[in-house]
Design brief:
Blueprint lengths: L3 H32 L4 E9 L5 E11 L5 E2 L1 H11 L2 H21 L6 E5 L2 H4 L4 H11 L7 E6 H6 L1 H13 L3 E7 L7 H5 L4 E4 L1 H4 L5 H16 L3 E5 L4 H9 L4 E3 L7 E2 H9 L1
Helix pairs in contact: 1-2, 5-7
The structure holds ligand C2E and calcium ion (CA) (3 copies).
One calcium ion binds next to loops.
Protein name: Response regulator receiver modulated diguanylate cyclase/phosphodiesterase
Organism: Pseudidiomarina planktonica
GO molecular function: cyclic-guanylate-specific phosphodiesterase activity
Length: about 270
Amino acid sequence: AKNSSLQSFDYYHPSMEEETLRRLDLVSRLRSDFAERKLEVWFQPQVELETGRIIGAEALLRWPQADGSFISPAVFIPLAEYSGLIVEIGAWVLEEACKEVQQFDALGLPELRVAVNVSVPQFRTKDFPERLDATLKRYNVAPDRIELEITESIVMEDPELVADILRRLKSTGMQVAIDDFGVGFSSLSYIQKLPLDRLKIDRSFVQNACTDSGRIIIETIVDMAHRLGLSVLAEGIETEDQARYFKHLKCGEAQGYLFAHPMPAKELKALLKQ
Ligand code: C2E
Ligand code: CA
Ligand code: CA
Ligand code: CA
């Protein structure tokens, strides 16, 4: 009989190769689909809890497949980051966001803020703030209409560099939010050192709003944010109970399936016209 560790080696080895091949295949398909303009940017409304009014939208990438399905960004974003493709794709997402803001204004729609996710490699490209500023100017978009969502992993990678870039971004009037707040288990000290506007409470905390310990953590985060003069947005609100709870906490803003799923830009414009 085979030794069990050998057996697991025999089994593991080919599957790792397959996994690598599958990833390489995905990256090359992503590269060609991006070049052929097959990626889409969808938008998920963000609402003011007190009034239910739509005050912003988060830009979210979508990669449609021939069969009508979508490959999740949770799958392809890490590959785009790893391959470096995210730098170009991210710049394109920012451009699409600016185009939408320009169109909202041309249509006389409410002045939404559009939030865009920024990856580490993108954030670290040379002259990121200056290039971004040039894009805004090209579309005649006021900097306070665009919010950058950065994660704790960006901050932790090089806190001083990040502080410098954020100061340059803020000096143009751009808004900055910390995304997935609390999941990185990182030091909280950066929060007070960086020029931030908003803190997005991760969905995993929102899901625990039904437990006593979950509420203690949420209330601590919201209180801390408010004392530091930051706005708070709760992510992944799915139920009326969750919405009521965050409204009661005076957590100003929320995003989640309860209000709206991510949708193509056209649908968002139709929704805003109503
Ligand atoms: P994220 O930035 O945390 O975005 C929020 C995710 O939560 C989105 O998933 C959104 O569709 C989902 N979501 C919103 N409300 C609810 C809800 O009520 N319940 C549940 N279960 N989920 C909700 P999505 O679109 O699949 O994106 C996944 C992640 O991919 C994003 O997480 C973000 O990290 C990344 N991503 C998406 N677009 C971009 C992009 O343009 N650039 C970069 N760098 N990353 C992106
Ligand atoms: Ca985000
Ligand atoms: Ca998030
Ligand atoms: Ca998340």
